[in-house]
Amino acid sequence: MSITNVLIYTGHKISGRLAPGLYPESLKGIRTMFNHIIKEHNRNLELYEVCGRELYHKLEKIDPAKTLLILPAGPSSVLEKNFSQKEIDRIEMVISKGMTLFGICGSAMMIAKNRTWLKNPTKKGRFSLFNGEAIAPMSPSAFKSASFYHRVVTLYLTSGFKVNLLLSGGGSFISTQSQTLATYAPFEIIRYGKDKDKNTWN
Amino acid sequence: MVLSSFGKGRVILSVVHPEYDGNEFNLEKLKAAFPERTENWEQIRKKISPVKDRAEFLLNLFLLKSHPKKEERCSFFHSLSQL
Fold first, then answer.
1. Per the count of CB atoms within 10 A, which of A34, A40, A81, A124 is most buried?
2. Which residues of B touch A43 (CB under 8 A)?
3. A164 to chain B, minimum CA–CA distance in Å?
């Protein structure tokens, strides 16, 4: 069965206004990326942009095996507050029936069972989609007004495909029950002083 | 980037940004919010792979998944190869 529906979460609205959390820049980038995929790769995809409440109802109507849900970037602790327990339950239920979810940066951290930012105590997440720990940032900042730097980082897929992507803090996911799809280039691990703990920063 | 199973579904987690080309940011706002930051945005924009490479990466990322059960792996490969 093919994926034909791509749902892009556009944040929650409170009294008609967008609640804080989701980065509009990330949303803009995802639109550009998927429009490129549809046009240049000739993929037959329907893109749906859905806010929190609409997402809840939309998930009731879609075929899970044909659907990819994308959660754009944003600070995990802020994003997490926007979801009601009912919404979390529905997202998890539809994924358990075959949907694929792609979480980016803070959204990916949000769906981890545990997450650790810098040396702060580990937080328990409200989602249970990733049974492991998310740790961040890869590129911490020494300044008070920002806890991380933006950098460009080289990544490799396990096939050897290489790409340079924006690192907005960055991090890593640790779990014995997951599979690594792409890793930081070895020189990046050394550059950020993570080479002493290669099993964690991959 | 990792992949995890959840029931019949899958979760792909990325802590880096395949969607950004660096032009999405309002640099004036960023500078005002974080005056101590020293990012060289011109250099960042030059270094980020073009959208065609990032899209290819994303498609490859979905394709390269493997799953403990062969029949599910085949189905998933097929499913995501259509993306």
1. A34
2. 82-83
3. 5
- Regarding an ipTM greater than 0.85, the answer is yes
Let me know: does A125 contact A80? Beta carbons within 8 Å.
Answer: yes
Query: pTM of the full predicted structure?
Result: 0.89
Q: pLDDT tens digits for A87-142?
A: 999 999 999 999 999 999 999 999 999 999 888 889 999 999 999 999 998 888 77
Contacts of B64 in chain A (CB under 8 A): 157-159, 181
Other C-beta atoms within 10 Å of A190: how many? 12
Yes or no, beta carbons of B82 and A4 under 8 Å apart:
yes
